[in-house]
């Protein structure tokens, strides 16, 4: 199977599974506990249907929208995800260049293998940085200041990860960063020689944005989950979020909002946007799917704050349904990571491009000439 044989997210997932050793693939693919929320994130979209309008001039369809102060060419962007060089040597640089070429936001994780400064050097497109509140306030401040100096256009604070979710797939495979060499993992690496050679020749993997203050998360003895549990501040509260918003002083999203009450608080402390998200089903298993919560949150705060739907998106029709219910934009994670794993920057471009094409084709078939015409009357719950 080649990249050219991939036509949708599931195709890229299959190719990523072929390309990656088992521990690496399952880190991307898995969720917490029984993975009920992981599955529900996508299943939730099947609870409603699209209602097209016909005999409408759709000779020109405009997918563009504005989110977090930036114009993007289609109504979804790349959500922050960790450690891109683990999946392909192109890493965050390749992902960022793909996003710029396609005309959408790239989001850089605190837990990236490439630094804020190095990403800025290779991409002039709109970039958002994903912040965590660390126990070391100086480290949090340092990340914010570096993003300002490097021309990042927006920031998001992940608020649902004060402790790592119980990701049992990772326990079973022995996933660590860098990969630990157990008998089972050695066998998997041996069966994926192309990945293994690229990994060995690609240089040491580090958490580039925090490696100047800690080596944790960059050694076999310390997994990424251990880093999260030891370094992130469990006392994080609304005052911390408000501080970060004021410190950044620009477009700022809270990522991980799932309740109306929290959405209203986000407005009160000055957030520009909320990302309705459960961290891809990787944190609290049994929680609601973002799409299940979308309409309730839109009804409560729509128009007062930008709303981004994050989680479970595998098809362009999922984006259309979210926009019709009032989301300003959507974001994807696993979908482009499968593409990165399958073929680096080229894989990201094809995976995201195929999803963009699905959105455009769907809008055309629905008789919608712009994303503004995707309104609530275009969907009906079963």
Describe the protein:
The protein is α/β, with parallel strands linked by helices. The chain has one domain: TIM Barrel. It has helices spanning 9-19, 22-29, 36-43, 91-102, 116-122, 137-149, 168-173, 183-190, 193-201, 224-231, 238-248, 260-268, 290-301, 316-324, 334-366, and strands spanning 48-50, 65-67, 70-72, 76-81, 106-109, 127-131, 154-158, 252-257, 273-276, 306-310, 329-332, 379-381. The strands form 3 sheets. It has an 8-stranded parallel barrel, surrounded by 8 helices. A two-stranded antiparallel ribbon has the order 1-12. Strand 8 (252-257), helix 12 and strand 9 (273-276) form a beta-alpha-beta unit. Helix 1 (9-19) packs antiparallel against helix 15 and helix 4 packs parallel to helix 15. It starts with 8 loop residues before the first helix and ends with a strand. The model is unreliable at 217-222 (pLDDT under 50).
Summarize the structure.
The protein contains 15 helices and twelve strands. It has helices spanning 9-19, 22-29, 36-43, 91-102, 116-122, 137-149, 168-173, 183-190, 193-201, 224-231, 238-248, 260-268, 290-301, 316-324, 334-366, and strands at 48-50, 65-67, 70-72, 76-81, 106-109, 127-131, 154-158, 252-257, 273-276, 306-310, 329-332, 379-381.
What average pLDDT do the residues reach?
92
Determine the CATH superfamily.
Answer: Aldolase class I
Question: How much helix is in the residues?
Answer: 40-55%
* CA gyration radius, whole angstroms: 20 Å
As laid out across the biggest beta sheet, the strand order is: 4-5-6-7-8-9-10-11
Question: What is the ordering of alpha helices and beta strands?
Answer: HHHEEEEHEHEHEHHHHHEHEHEHEHE
| Helical/strand content category | alpha/beta
Uncertain spans, ≥5 residues at pLDDT below 50?
217-222
> How is the CATH topology named?
TIM Barrel
